[in-house]
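Students often ask why we bother predicting the structure of a whole assembly rather than each chain alone. The short answer is interfaces. A chain on its own may look different once its partners are present, and contacts between molecules only exist in the joint model. In this exercise we take two input lines together and write out one structure for the complete complex. Read the inputs first and try to guess which parts will touch.
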Amino acid sequence: MGELNGLYALWYREFKVFLRERSRVVASVVQPLMWLVIFGTGLGASIALGGENYQTFIYPGILTMTSLFGSLFFGLYIIMDRRVDFLKEVLVAPLSRTTIFFGKVLGGATDGIIEVVILMLLGSLFFGIHFTVLSVIASLVAIFLLMVSILSIGLTIGSMMNSLEGFGLISSFVSFPLFFLSGALFPIKNLPSWLYAFVSVNPVSYAVDALRSMILGVPAAFGLVPDFAVLVAFALLMIGVGTWAFGRMRI
Amino acid sequence: MAYVIEARGLHKSFNGVKAVNGIDLRINEGEIFGLLGPNGAGKTTTLSMLATLIKPTKGSALVNGFDIRTQAHRVRGSIGFVFQDPSSDDLLTGRENLYLHALMYGVDMRDINRKMDDVLKLVDLTGVQHRRMKTYSGGMRRRLELARGLLHEPKVLFLDEPTLGLDPQTREHLWKYIKRLSTEKRVTIIVTTHYMDEADLLCDRVAIIDHGKIVALDTPANLKKRVGGDVVRISARSPNLRALRKLRYIKKIKTDGGLLTLTVDEAERHLQEILKVVGEVRSVESHFPTLNDVFLHFTGSEIRETEAEGGYFERMMHSGNR
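Now the answer. The structure tokens for the assembled complex follow.
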């Protein structure tokens, strides 16, 4: 009961703060829109992928990108909490570190899911994406799994660092390879084998693959079952790492 | 009678540097106990060990009967802690910050609203409870954090430099609230401070800490008595120390260049004679001993104010919340 209330408290805080930081919500939606409108239209003017409009093709990839960057960036807030004594206030509470970690992860995932739902609405209204109830739910499940993994990575980095600049540096080292090697912006079918090797060991690729298949109704390159298996395994692994990192975090 | 806190031989080293070097404490139920010393004396480290935020290198303590080394979780559930730096979320309202705390400390859901109303009233913040914390003044924020520390009805409340960085008026105001908590809630309060007046006016007993050790521990009144007389400070061109030493009512002479600090029995009666023999006097001042003199008496140095001020600026630098 105590731990559950604590979990709720941490989630409640993240959610409230998210709702009050309008600029954060707006920025998190505007950036993917720029990718879709400018990059998608720009490159789409010259190329088409197997009859698919390029903008439509990258739409699932951009959803993934939003989840990836947003979730990783979430780890920054732990450093901000440490700069004031808010983190201490939380760590001193008679709660297990695992609870604190999950509270953060669920809070971050809630924020991220809201952003993605907004992008889905915009996608269906302005970008000609046809969602079904099933594709929305299945996509959100895949996105949630990815968010949990990436939030865990972000929180792990955040738990080990004191400087915002350092966090920015390390997180971009992590996020850019994960993004560019995920097939978010290009099909992975005809890649040279060295590049394909990188893409296939990147867990984010499986999220892109699953989303593209479910949203656009194209066959999945890796297969949907392997996609979800990888996402679940990756999430479990990263939760393990994150829990460990929170356990050893100094007050 | 059982003590609320009983510490034996607490030691703490950070990378071989001794921050706390053997502290013994016995704190009674319901008292306001002060740990007084300059920054770096080991006050916060001592407090942090008692609150199980850090583990002692050596020694141990019982807090509310729980061992700080083996029952950290139980200790934490039975204490409240108000940190040196702001520790609330600026984007949440005062009441929401309290709500978070109540949930994290396992306050019964049915009691949460009543208890929040209760502590808000205690610190006179009922009227602003629905305002976001970023609109609070420094004093209001501290009061809210005091209230928050009490929400789960701890038996002991730790306050780490509660008035650091506040203006003098706000500080005095805050003492009033701290006293109120102590009398109305019958909670034992342990407070660290480097402000002499704070320790003097607020605390029932004071432990003076320097270099990780307790150098004196008593009520402020008794500590002042132990200075052994009134304090006379004289600035003289070339003080005649030999003549002064012959005066038997002068208990102690300290010199710092041309500045003399004398401990004198019944200074009013003897001041004239002292001034006659000391030589050419630039200025003179005489007063009953203050805690500052006590500190000087036991540690041989002034409390290091310049160093202590550092905390304020650090706090300013870090005051930006998300």
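Check your guess against this: Chain B touches chain A through 32 residues (CB under 8 Å).
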